[in-house]
Amino acid sequence: MSAAGPADPGNVKEDTAMAQPAISNTAQYQAPGAAFVSLQAFVSARFHAHPILQKYYGSAENYLAAYVRQYGAGEWLEALRGVQLDVEASIEVVSYYVEHANRGAEDIPRILGSLERQYDIAVPVEEGILTPEYWVPLVERLTH
């Protein structure tokens, strides 16, 4: 095997760096200690870390709108893995689904359950939080 073959760690690092450009690396945007980070703060950190994004989009708000259209919330939710949400953070997460995914109050309990299973994001212990009725006022406020 040649020195430049797969056993050469330098070659592996080079391939990895090429396969994963810095802009798509979510690890650098994760909060230490699995703290809640809003979608806006998550995307804003990426925007401010890359001058090319600032030049192309002009503002963090424009980049946020484009980011949500192109990528959804998967990277953000992955960054939240293991977080214990409080009620305020739950409202922020649910607001994303209402505003950007056009989900109604009847969908929210299933979404929260899915976040617990898929991302290990813990929902707070709050009476009624896993019922559609709990979320009706928020959904009505965000959609009217």
What descriptors fit this protein?
0% strand; 8 helices; globular; mainly alpha; 144 residues
- Which bin fits the share of residues in helices? 55-70%
User: Kindly state the mean pLDDT as a whole number?
Assistant: 82
How would you sum up the major sheet? none
Order of helices and strands, N to C?
Answer: HHHHHHHH
Terminal Cα separation, in Å? 66 Å
As a whole number of angstroms, the C-alpha radius of gyration is: 19 Å
Number of domains: 1
Derived structural class: mainly alpha
Describe this structure in words.
The chain has helices at residues 9-19, 39-49, 51-57, 60-71, 74-79, 87-100, 108-119, 132-143. The chain is mainly α and 144 residues long.
Topology, element by element:
Blueprint: H1 9-19, H2 39-49, H3 51-57, H4 60-71, H5 74-79, H6 87-100, H7 108-119, H8 132-143
Task: Describe, in short, the structure shown.
By secondary structure, this protein is an all-alpha fold. The chain has eight helices and no strands. It has helices at residues 9-19, 39-49, 51-57, 60-71, 74-79, 87-100, 108-119, 132-143.
